[in-house]
C-alpha cells in the first residue's frame, strides 16, 4: 500500500492550492484521513480530517478557508486551501486509515508536500 500526497507548491498570499492524498495498492477503501502540517522548528499539527461517512473537522486556524473532501472511487482525499496566508507555509502530510482487502485497517503516512505562501 502506498499513500502519496501531491499538489504543493509556491503561491502568493490570497491564492489557492489543492492537495491530494491518494492511496493505492491492495486496498479496499480509505476509512479516514487526517491532514497535518509542520512548519520549520514547530510541531506537527492537525489541520483537518474526514471520516468514513464524510464528516469533517477543521483546526480553528483554517476554518472557512480549507475544505477536505473525498473521492471514494479514486481512493483519494483532497484538501482545498483558499485564501492562503504566509503562516500556512509548512510541509503538509496526510495520515490515512486504510482498509486493505483482508479487512484489516492500517495507518499510513504520506511523504509530505511543501506548501509555501509568499507575502
Outline: elongated
The stretches of 5 or more residues where confidence is low (pLDDT under 50) are none
Kindly estimate the percentage of residues that lie in beta strands according to DSSP. over 45%
Largest sheet: 7 strands, mixed
Number of strands: 11
Radius of gyration: 14 Å
- Gap from first CA to last CA: 38 Å
Order of helices and strands: EEEEEEEEEEE
Structure classification: mainly beta
Q: How many helix segments?
A: 0
Overall residue-averaged pLDDT value: 96
Task: Give the proportion of residues in helices.
Answer: under 10%
In short:
By secondary structure, this protein is an all-beta fold. The protein is built from no helices and 11 strands.
Protein architecture, described:
The protein is an all-beta fold and 119 residues long. Helix content is 0%, strand content 61%. The protein is elongated. It starts with a strand and ends with a strand. The relative contact order is 0.33.
Describe this protein with a few key phrases.
mainly beta; 11 strands; four-stranded antiparallel beta sheet; single chain; 119 residues; 61% strand; seven-stranded mixed beta sheet; elongated
Amino acid at each position: 500500500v502506498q499513500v502519496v500526497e501531491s499538489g504543493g507548491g509556491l503561491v502568493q498570499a490570497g491564492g489557492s492550492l489543492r492537495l491530494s492524498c491518494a492511496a493505492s495498492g491492495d486496498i479496499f477503501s480509505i476509512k479516514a484521513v487526517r491532514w497535518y502540517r509542520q512548519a520549520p522548528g514547530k510541531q506537527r499539527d492537525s489541520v483537518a480530517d474526514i471520516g468514513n461517512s464524510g464528516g469533517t473537522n477543521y483546526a480553528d486556524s483554517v476554518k472557512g478557508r480549507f475544505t477536505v473532501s473525498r473521492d471514494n472511487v479514486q481512493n483519494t482525499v483532497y484538501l482545498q486551501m483558499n485564501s492562503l496566508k504566509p503562516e500556512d507555509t509548512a510541509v503538509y502530510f496526510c495520515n490515512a486509515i486504510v482498509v486493505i482487502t483482508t479487512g484489516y485497517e492500517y495507518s499510513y503516512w504520506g511523504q509530505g508536500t511543501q506548501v509555501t505562501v509568499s507575502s
